[in-house]
Amino acid sequence: MTTELSTKLRPDAICEKLSIGSSTYYNRLKHLGIEASKDEDGPYLNAEQMKLMEDLSEHIKATGKMQGFGGGGQLALSERSGLASALEIPEVEAETFDQMDDEMLSQFIEEAGELKTQQIAMPHLIKWHLANNMSEEDLSDEQRAKLQAIRDAANPKQSAASIAQQLLQRHRNKNQQKNPETK
């Protein structure tokens, strides 16, 4: 779900794309703090705002609620979205970092660690969501063979009662060989 940067996205098209009603659309705008722009054709969202709406939709699909959505802090980190290059990133003088006290440095490192954690976790989360939406038909032939082997192991062709009877008979025969006088 990506959009062009110069596109003006109208509410009806957004509702259709996200499969939501107009009241849900306006509730999500309010939750995100987005105010739609207007032109002679009416209200619209730009690509960055639409990206937030799409990200919120994905969050809602994953969690079932709007609460907990980060609000798009990941946009600046996403080089593939095209939005990172549109952001103006000010140059920072090295002296600024030299003046950090230990507490500020610890906070800075902690925040960097949080970003790294998200960066490492994202591919795993995507894989989890992919797997969650896959069916057996989406598996490769090799994966289907593994699945069948697991099913075969979990559900042997012989019944559990039959296997238990055979094992008990084997046990009795072994005991009879040890103690031939007991019959």
Write up what this structure looks like:
By secondary structure, the protein is mainly alpha-helical. Helices cover 58% and strands 3% of the residues. It has seven helices and two strands; from the N terminus they run H-H-E-E-H-H-H-H-H. It has a two-stranded antiparallel ribbon. A hairpin with a 2-residue loop joins strand 1 and strand 2. Residues 1-5 and 73-86 have low confidence and may be disordered.
Question: What is this structure's SSE topology?
Answer:
Blueprint: H1 11-18, H2 22-32, E1 37-39, E2 42-44, H3 47-63, H4 94-98, H5 102-133, H6 141-154, H7 160-178
Antiparallel strand pairs: 1-2
> How would you write the strand order of the largest sheet?
1-2
Distance between the termini: 77 Å
Low-confidence stretches: 1-5, 73-86
**Main beta sheet strand tally, sense and closure:** 2 strands, antiparallel
* Element string (H = helix, E = strand): HHEEHHHHH
Beta strand %: under 5%
Approximate shape: elongated
Measured as a percent range, the helix fraction is 55-70%
- Mean pLDDT comes to 81
Number of DSSP helical runs: 7
Q: Structural class, from secondary structure content?
A: mainly alpha
How many extended strands?
Answer: 2
Radius of gyration: 30 Å
